[in-house]
Amino acid sequence: PFPLLMSTAGVFGVTKAVWEWKGDPKWVKYDTATTLKLETGFLKSQDKVKSDSQRFVDLSLSPAELKKNIPLKIPLKEFVGLQRRFDDENKRRAVRRKCPSFLKGIKVLVLVDDDTTRETYQLLVKSYGGSLRSKFGSQVHVILTSSSDSASYQADLESAKNSQVPVVGDSWLIEAIKSGKAVNFAPHIIAAEEEDEDEEEPGDEEEETEEKPKPSLKRKLSQVSGSTASAVGMKKAKMQPFRAGSEWAGICSYGDADIYPCTISVLTRKEKNVTGTVSWPTLHHAKTKFKGTIVGNVLDFTEYEAISGEEHLSLPSSYSATFSADGLSAEGSVSSVSEPGEESYEDGKFEMEYIEKDVEDEEEDQVADETQSFTIHVEKRVGKVIRGKIVMTVDGEEVQYKGAMSGDKLVFSTTSTSPDADSPLPEEFAMEWDSTKGVLHGDGFLIPFSS
């Protein structure tokens, strides 16, 4: 019923990974051809990959061994090898592999018979921020599989069908890598063949295809993308659910294909009252404010105002979820208004999970989570429009930006960087001015004003 032959050939021709070697003092990117060669070798578990006529990249060492060779303060998962010279292997440079986390918040179960192929796809899912599951259950958002010929995972496929969990082929992962974002499951779903097709009652087809009002969070886009939120360190033991400063990877789903990831940031919690923001990466990075309450282990909150991307949102939207015993996840429902004056529809499923670090990267990620010092210079302002530059204190990297003020809200995008800068372009930020404290805050920033 699931006729698809899976192969790793497709993923070896595309990548969104960035490969760099440590120069003096900056990291230097490999060119496109070399990057693809290195990525292929990495996925195939090769020990050595030739980078040019004089050098090769040694991929044979474990992360711990690499750190002993060159004790750099970078996340352990990024430190993948050493660049060595053919004529003198003792001359070496650190090599890192960085991947965007566009699958963050999406939990994937990979069901493939061939061990090598399965491990390759699991590595790619994890590299791009996705979470892996070892067996089917309520926490699986999608199954990535090959065919139904193997009895070893037939039961999982049937369970997925009964639970309306999408089952997709490798084309979903390949398209996601090509586009640099998690894409809609629907075009890649492997449709099961219907049994007893001749026994279908007249009129059944009309009932199945009859449309009902669209749920509120079908926010004009059908793509799915992972969150890029940073983790905030927090202990598991006796954790207060939804505490101030925490971030959560959320999923709103309608049926087996309409899935919308979000990042929920808790700004304040005072007794039972909570406030924060919700970011929607697939909806042109729209962002909203929410407020709500926690009574016992039940969370109720409402998105009530757009910070950005209002044209892609349907507000207000109300959520109700019950926390798990450990306070690290919650499940419930979402309802909202499709258009002003219309009734609410409570046919959406909502679930969220606390964003935490991988255990193996805990020590190294502390470096990445440290406060980064920088200065924002406003060089020109005409009406609402502002222009200027951002200067990083540590390395002097400069980033040009352009944006606009509307009341207390500032939205701006980066437009260019200094040569050899690591910052991707463009990036968009949304912040608010707190006149009582004299600071801009939002998107993980806290920027005090100084004249």
> What radius of gyration results from the CA coordinates?
24 Å
Helical residues, percent: 10-25%
Beta-strand share of residues: 35-45%
Q: What general outline do the C-alpha atoms trace?
A: globular
Tally of contiguous helical segments: 7
Q: How do the strands of the widest beta sheet line up side by side?
A: 11-12-13-14-15-16-17-18
Q: Overall mean pLDDT score?
A: 74
Number of strands: 25
Q: How many angstroms does the end-to-end distance come to?
A: 68 Å
Largest sheet: 8 strands, antiparallel, barrel
Structural class: mainly beta
Q: Can you walk through the features of this model?
A:
It is a single chain. This protein has 451 residues and is mainly beta. The chain is built from seven helices and 25 strands. Strands 11-12-13-14-15-16-17-18 form an eight-stranded antiparallel beta barrel. It has a seven-stranded antiparallel β-sheet with strand order 19-20-21-22-23-24-25, with no helix packed on it. A hairpin with a 2-residue loop joins strand 19 (374-382) and strand 20 (385-392). The model is unreliable at 1-7, 193-238 and 357-371 (pLDDT under 50).
